[in-house]
Amino acid sequence: MERTESTQDTTAFNMPDWMIQFADQKREFNKRPTKIGRRSLSRSISQSSTDSYSSDSSDDETSPRDKQQKNSKGSSDFCVKNIKQAEFGRREIEIAEQEMPALMALRKRAQGEKPLAGAKIVGCTHITAQTAVLIETLGALGAQCRWAACNIYSTLNEVAAALAESGVPVFSWKGESEDDFWWCIDRCVNVEGWQPNMILDDGGDLTHWIYKKYPNMFKKIKGIVEESVTGVHRLYQLSKAGKLCVPAMNVNDSVTKQKFDNLYCCRESILDGLKRTTDMMFGGKQVVVCGYGEVGKGCCAALKAMGSIVYVTEIDPICALQACMDGFRLVKLNEVIRQVDIVITCTGNKNVVTREHLDRMKNGCIVCNMGHSNTEIDVASLRTPELTWERVRSQVDHVIWPDGKRIVLLAEGRLLNLSCSTVPTFVLSITATTQALALIELYNAPEGRYKQDVYLLPKKMDEYVASLHLPTFDAHLTELSDEQAKYLGLNKNGPFKPNYYRY
């Protein structure tokens, strides 16, 4: 097993028989939606104009923690906004299933073997229709799941209700307070007669909570799967300090996450989030994007295509050079802060936009974050007596200075796309499939394969996830001949690139 710094590559990974057979049969399960699926879609859209799954005003004033709710089976082991929204959430999940071919195929092919039988997975991710498809797939593969949200604004209440109705203990609603956020995580973890043996995290908050409150649980936990740059950074810190108790799989740095979810997802969802919240015209607007990683690249490409004038800030000379070669002007934030119309952060860092920057912004400047954490914009510095906060609409606030200048702050500095809009389902299918396979690998790995360290997904698994999505495009891979494979020194079935290859 090779090792690079604190990251290990799982070269010992062996593809199980059901996965090999599945690769030959994947075309059967990757067909376009049937007529039934299309009817479900049209019914959901048409009824959304006449039916409402929004709670009435009196219901909105009551905290879900103070409600006594039961699903149709009589269970109360959940806490959502309104269990009566379950039918609408189920329709959204059915629509998402049509754009998540690999997960649906994985569910159908592997559920006979139940590779996650006995797994007790506690999860902390965004709770959306796409995540619901993942959760229900894990259940179909044999796992028991309990779930909380990793973001206080990204939960779709109707989807959380649908999960609760189906029997998944889910604790989440849109607009949680900070206290609610940690209470929901604790309700997932601290339950009599049930103890997790796997963690699926997005941001590291769940892992942090267990370390802080219930460290003895790690005696039975087999592994952690983490998908965000923030959470992965925390895991590496634990590993470096010798405090990581179990193996962890770094999904964030897998090729299928970085090159598809981070890039293509953000390329589409940045425009959606800004349009839904501000109704802004992008043509001719001056935008500064802080960070030119995969998320920054996606944001810049979308805004440039819409006619915006885009500036980039970056600390890494390699990413900076890429920005220059892609036609963007590299600047320091101080150089353009007075003139730009939109400021977007996507670095994963803290205090990227400080109070000094906010004070110097022009009237009407839009400020938002596309990174996972809410630390990039110093929102706390804006909660002072001399500044006035004015709610415009959901997730949109005016922050007004004494001289009348105002900025438009979106989602209080939290993740824009999942807080204010939605994200492309097909791209999330790629990430969700990667997460599912990582859980299967860690859960079934023989003792000794993984030590108490952070691992990258094996290249073979990345290629496999990608191959499952190709039939959707009616794409046909070229196959190596024996002579060509020998010439390149490759196995005809992959992996096709060395571990150090940068796509």
UniProtKB/TrEMBL annotation:
Entry protein name: Adenosylhomocysteinase
EC number of the protein: 3.13.2.1
A GO biological-process term: S-adenosylmethionine cycle
Required co-factors: NAD(+)
Residue ranges, annotated region (Disordered): 24-76
CDD domains to which the protein is assigned, alphabetical: SAHH (cd00401)
Cofactor binding comment, as recorded: Binds 1 NAD(+) per subunit.
Domain S-adenosyl-L-homocysteine hydrolase NAD binding: 262-423
Catalytic activity: S-adenosyl-L-homocysteine + H2O = L-homocysteine + adenosine
Keywords: Hydrolase, NAD, One-carbon metabolism
The family this protein is said to belong to: Belongs to the adenosylhomocysteinase family.
GO cellular component: cytosol
List of residues binding substrate: T128, D202, E227, K257, D261
